[in-house]
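_Per-residue structure_
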Amino acid sequence: SEGCAFLVQVGVTAQKTMRLLPASGRRATQKVVVGDQDGVLTCFGIKKGEPVTVFKTLPGPKIARLELGGALNTPQEKIFVATGSEVRGFTKRGKQFLSFETNLTEDIKAMHISGADLFLCASYIYNHYCDCKDKHYYLSRDKINDVLCLPVDKVNCITPVLACQDRVLRVLQGSDLLYEVEVPGPPTVLALNNGDGGDSGEEIVYGTSDGKLGLVQITGSAPVPKWEIKNEKKRGGILCIDSFDILRDGVKELLVGRDDGVLEIYSFESADDPVLRYDYVLSESISSIQGGCVGKDGYDEVLACTYSGWLTGLTTELAYREGGSGEELKLSQDMQSKISSLRNEVEHLQMKVLGEREKYQQSSQSSSAVSSVPAFSVNDKFTLNDDDASYSLILEVQAAIDIVLVQSDVPVDLLDVDKNSAVVSFSNCDSDPNGNCLLATYRCQANTTRLELKIRSIEGRYGTLQAYVTPRIQPKTCQVYQYQIKPLSLHQRTHSIDHDRPMNTLMLRGQFSFAEIHSWVVFCLPEVPERTPPGESVTFYFQNTFLGTQLESTYRLGEGCFKSDNISTISILKDVLSKEATKRKINLNISFDINEESVRHTLKLIHPKLEYQQLLAKKVHLIDALRELQVQEGNVDFLVPEYRRILEEADQLLEEYKKQPAHLERLYGMITDLFIDKFKFRGTNVKSKVPLLLELLDGCEQDRLIAFFEAA
């Protein structure tokens, strides 16, 4: 029986900024150390259920990472924090013993410590220091999210591993790349399996931004994948991982914290894949997670730190005790007094807030009043979901959200989100093509600090989506966040493509630099690193999440080659790249090679989706009439089995249809674009034949559709 052990709040926290110090002396309980974005490092313990501060530093630059260190094979009780480009070291009593200003030009994003070795990463740069002396350097092809080093005492050499945004773990040797490990999503966090890399010391657990979890063995020559857990429940991305034996069965469980507030405990019941044993939902993203004994000697806890700085301990201590025979379970005396003291504290805080609010009202009405805009932190994430080809926009605010206004200058659909309890209202938009295509207002319920929206874009239509975030604070203030909807917005990076598909080719030649053509590709496609990759040329592979078509882009100084099995993808690239080159007054020599077989291939990919959506729409339109018949006749035994099945599945069908508005129209639009683009490359305008095509699409067979494309 797990219960909430204690609640403490610090400032807003970044990922991996809370750790438990090893237990010292006779006391078995551990101290908690946490760093926040106000730059304050706090160390506290729990005594009789109340937090007792050991030390607290003064505010400063925000703390991006916190790690524990010390000499190898000794208790790791020295505290290291990364702030800006500096690393500071503190003893467990709070005395600063290190201030190391690195030579990094960017802020530190990730850090790992092993004995005298310090591993630091900025956005693209990795640095290895030994005794604060620069030793190795590596420039990554994509953003680095986390860094780890295999335990030196087990593997007898320094083996750093970088978690990079392009779905790759990069294993280094000195300043060189030893090999790459392909993983199923952008890795956001790394942890040593079992806390020590397992028996071999080579096992690493990774978590991805799309919620997948995996274990890979990093041997000296090649990776050995062990297991992978897909995100079947569509939960949030993974931000933190720890290993701890919370079940006291002699095997450490895997503790996982996600960005939607879900805390999970996986156990290893067999030598194979881990099994989800427990989960617990917090109201905001979990930035750090640890297992240990903090609140009460003899009772272990899972300690989670959330984005806005709440530290919550989930304890194994029983909150209830057994009554006498036949009596119900009763709250233990300890728990009753804890609840009573919390109630008193809440009442005291409410009175304090009322007093401060009155003071503010009086001072704001005086003649000498000066209003200051309150600052607030927003944690935002805009990512493409490969399972339903939609974008998730997640906004997490330090204070409760009042209103979020969403505005877009390109046509987008807002999809339903189950977790979203906000009330949405839409405003009419201008007919001006450069004006608003979407204006939607989300009014949040009290105490909502996290809002998730789902958006589906149309490829070929590009522009900006803006979110105006207004929290429930006085005076009213708002922050604006912008997100680019790219021309090929539904494409996602992938490790490889099928080269046997019929491909269309677009070739560009001209007086452009490698950096210029890279900036055009960044403008067109998501998940491309903003920094120009090292080397003379680069190849990226993409997959369309809606249709499953693919794209290969290879470019270098003065030359670019783009291959796709979808003519519309090539058409969009041709139009956008020509426009970008014209803006910079660069003449392009454009050539293309169109494979007629690719049109038939793309139609075969679209048609099953089209058929399914047409059938779904037909079933949904029948539901009302069938329900009316059911009411009039009293039963449905006289109906054919197909109609009875529609009535049985009515709720699921309506739910699915509601979640995918305009899905059918999107497919019609894609087929129409494919038809126009096929003939555009021949120099023929077939827009007059589009009404005929739309007529044909209603209940159309695949062969008739292909015949229409070939006969036109």
